[in-house]
Amino acid sequence: MPQKSSARRGALMAELTVESRRYMAAYALFNQAVADHLRLHPTDLQCLNLLGLETVPVTTGRIAELTGLTTGSATRLVDRLERGGYVTRERDTVDRRRVLVATVPERMAEIGAVWERLGGAWAAMFEAYDDDEVALLIAHMRRTVELGAQQVAALRESGPSVSGPGGAGGAGDPGSP
Question: CB of 46 within 8 A of CB of 63?
Answer without folding.
Answer: no
